[in-house]
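Section 4.2 – Deliverable D4.2 (structural model, holo form)

The reporting period included a commitment to supply a predicted holo structure for the target in complex with Phenylacetyl coenzyme A. Inputs used:
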Amino acid sequence: MPTEQTQESYFQDKIDREVRIEPTDWMPDNYRKALIRQISQHAHSEIVGMLPEANWITRAPNLKRKAALLAKVQDEAGHGLYLYAACETLGITRDELYEQLHSGKAKYSSIFNYPTLTWADIGAIGWLVDGAAIMNQVPLCRASYGPYSRAMVRICKEESFHQRQGFDIMLTLCRGTEAQRGMAQDALNRWWWPSLMMFGPRDDDSPHSAQSMKWKIKRNSNDELRQRFVDITTEQAQFLGISIPDPELALDPETGHYRYGAINWEEFKAIIAGQGPCNRQRLEARKTAWADGAWVREAALAHSQKRAAGTSAGAPLADPSGVARSGPTGATSAETNLSNPQPAPYVK
Ligand code: FAQ
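Output (structure tokens):
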């Protein structure tokens, strides 16, 4: 019987040789815990991240923008689902994960606690927030845990489209009227510093980085990725013709990197402690969605129990009470019945 120490050194050796760890492989308990923490935080970020943008779907300026925004927000729901599924392979249930989000035990990204005040914010989120997300997530495609790294490959492909749609919105605004350029500049002013905070605390203040890098969950440090983001985004802002709100931002000719000013870490700490402008609103929205979805979970469970009992083969999914029931959108079954030739009434 191998000792715990032998198992650990065999495990680390696999990691060092770039062999992926799979759900049924032996792993140290702390590796499992570190993954549950990071993957669940990531999953929660995706689904909470749907809220600030979904707020603008009904107000998108034209059909093309609306279709792209709808697709983007749906992609984020999908990313949440891949990540929850990857997390469940570590021996935690979906219900437990949601419970941790709803109780405030689990974090989600600081960035989603800021409000989206104008249409330009949708451009800034795609350009900056998805841009930062890609910078952080491309290395995660090589994370040592198989289910996480495979989920990240697909997520990154979709994130690139998100970043481009955001940049395209910014470009349109920057080439538009003075008022539109003003909106783009205002959005950049408000989203720049929070985007830099997305990468997490400075390396010398990041308790998890060293172990996470040894286990190859993380491949790059927080500061390293933040610097790459500043270097790339600064030149994109120059192309757009808008200014990054940092008087200290300057190219260092010796290193070839842009130096940037001090990040307000007090603001970051307050946000992750639940004191940001929208923390309460975001959590309330998730809790309400969970409560409103109870009837769907009950119906799915009842249906699967019926199927398991072998009584439902071919049976229609009818409400046994015969009473039209209101779904989460408030639409009755008559409004959502696909065989009904009448279009559903437009509800604002
Ligand atoms: N917000 O020791 P470290 C997206 C916490 S997805 C809140 O450096 P680590 C897609 C950290 O959890 C965005 N908390 O931690 C999208 C820890 O607290 P704990 C999310 C943060 O794990 C786009 C403590 O601080 N992406 O945007 C943040 O080594 C547009 C100490 O930190 C991911 O989750 C923060 N920004 O490094 C959706 C990527 N930063 O757990 C919609 C995966 C740090 O001890 C629209 N995650 N903390 O209580 C990671 O890469 C890492 O977990 C880091 C943090 C880099 C986020």
